[in-house]
Amino acid sequence: MTALFAMVASPRLPGAAPLTPPIESWQVRYEGRFRHYGRPTTGVWTAETFGCPACGGTAGPWTVTCDWRLISLGCPCGAVTHEHGLALSEIWLLLPEM
């Protein structure tokens, strides 16, 4: 296992193909609220609505941008944040078909 992880973490040789194929980023608009769900203890669930860190707005319309490494939420006020704490599933399940 150590050899495998060392190979994956090592820099690529010149001319070698990347280990993962390139994936294009996507962007979509969403009108509505994003909620972050948590389970702090057994039998207890929490839900928190994400609000824009600049204006406090929660209903959007949000501009959702994903490059499969980072998800950014853009607010109509112009603020863009990737520090929203939302999981990909909490965002992906709400978005319209792309």
Structure, explained:
The chain is an alpha+beta fold. The protein has two helices and six strands, in the order αββββββα. It has helices at residues 2-9, 88-92, and strands at 26-30, 35-41, 44-49, 62-66, 71-74, 80-81. The chain has a four-stranded antiparallel β-sheet with strand order 1-4-5-6, with no helix packed on it. The protein is extended, with a radius of gyration of 18 Å. The termini are far apart. The model has no long low-confidence stretch (mean pLDDT 84).
Summarize this entry quickly.
This protein is an alpha+beta fold and 98 residues long. It contains two helices and six strands, in the order αββββββα.
Shape: extended
Q: Radius of gyration, Cα only, in angstroms?
A: 18 Å
Largest sheet: 4 strands, antiparallel
The helix-and-strand class reads alpha+beta
Element string (H = helix, E = strand): HEEEEEEH
Low-pLDDT segments: none
How many DSSP-defined strands? 6
- Tell me the quaternary state: single chain
> In what order do the strands lie side by side in the largest sheet?
1-4-5-6
Report how far the terminal alpha carbons are from each other: 39 Å
Overall pLDDT: 84
Q: How many helices?
A: 2
- Give the strand content: 25-35%
